Amino acid sequence: RRRFEAVPAEPLETAGLSAFGQDMLAALAASPRSIAPKYFYDAPGSALFDRICELPEYYPTRTEVGILQAQAVHIAEAIGPNAEIVEFGAGSLLKIRLLLDAMDRPSRYLPIDISGEHLAQAAARLQQDYAGLEVLPVVADYTQDLILPRAAPHAGRRVGFFPGSTIGNFTPPQALHFLRMAARVLRGGALLLGADLFKDPALLHAAYNDAQGVTAAFNLNLLARANRELGADFVLSQFAHSAFYNAPLRRIEMHLVSLREQQVTVCGRRFSFSEGESLHTENSHKFTVDSLRALATEAGFTPGRVWTDPNQLFSLHWLQA
Ligand code: AVI
Predict the structure, then answer these.
(1) pTM of the predicted model, to two decimals?
(2) pLDDT tops 80 at residue 86
(3) What spacing in Å lies between the alpha carbon of 60 and ligand 1's midpoint?
(4) Residue 242 burial (CB < 10 Å; 0-12/13-18/19+)?
(5) Closest CA to 183 of 152, 149, 160, 156
(6) Are strands 278-285 and 251-258 parallel, antiparallel or unpaired?
(7) Does ligand 1 come within 6 angstroms of the Cβ of 284?
(8) pLDDT in tens, 44-63
(9) What is the ipTM of this complex?
């Protein structure tokens, strides 16, 4: 009698690989294939993202900056005197400067970022311009549970700042997890949160399919990064940038679509792509004011004021922790 034995799938040998290597191998071994968008942001990817923020089609950055400029006095009033600002992500120095300039004697600024070098440079530049402010960079992954330094004696409120609608790049459970952690570390203070609003899908589509192809280059840089860091052999011209609005899930999805049947090698392992098969690289969820407030409430915040632009493209939320 013949006996059939299940042959276990060859285990992925990931010991000794970087987090990017481990996650890329896991993404390629899965079906459907999907990887966290945080891997976009190596140095070339961060430079491409800065260019995206300047694109005519990419409205979120300039709209949020416009709201911060228009409402700085009211936001500073809500923050109060001597406050401590905790920024999740090194962030745009422009946005934090708009807040600091309007605030009444800010006491301390704690930018949190995973990239220590980038953070140290940004913090040093800020310190030069704000001599009376204590700038205390915290090198940490803010998607994990955080422990922050104690509040300085006599400091005012501790206020979190999470601009840019990066909250939309989390899956809904990740967003809830992040907000719960933020509510915990900011207890007694508040969070100022930027969230992109649902709008005409044609405008959303244009923002992620710009005419100059910068967003496409940003997406494809993920494969270029794998070639640089993981000894991969992706042929970039054999993959296409695809970004579309998924209406039921209220999100832009970005994918890299294989233009033909092909094989790639990553960290010494071979993977096949069929024609049209994709690697899902990013979600960018869009909110209504009410859906964001409901999410914040579920995470333990008490939603307060909401500031938007005249066209209701983007929202800034004051969430009491
Ligand atoms: C950082 N994040 C909020 C951007 C977004 O719009 O979701 C990332 C981005 N992806 C493509 N363009 C911009």
Answers:
(1) 0.92
(2) yes
(3) 9
(4) middle
(5) 160
(6) antiparallel
(7) yes
(8) 998 999 999 999 999 999 99
(9) 0.99
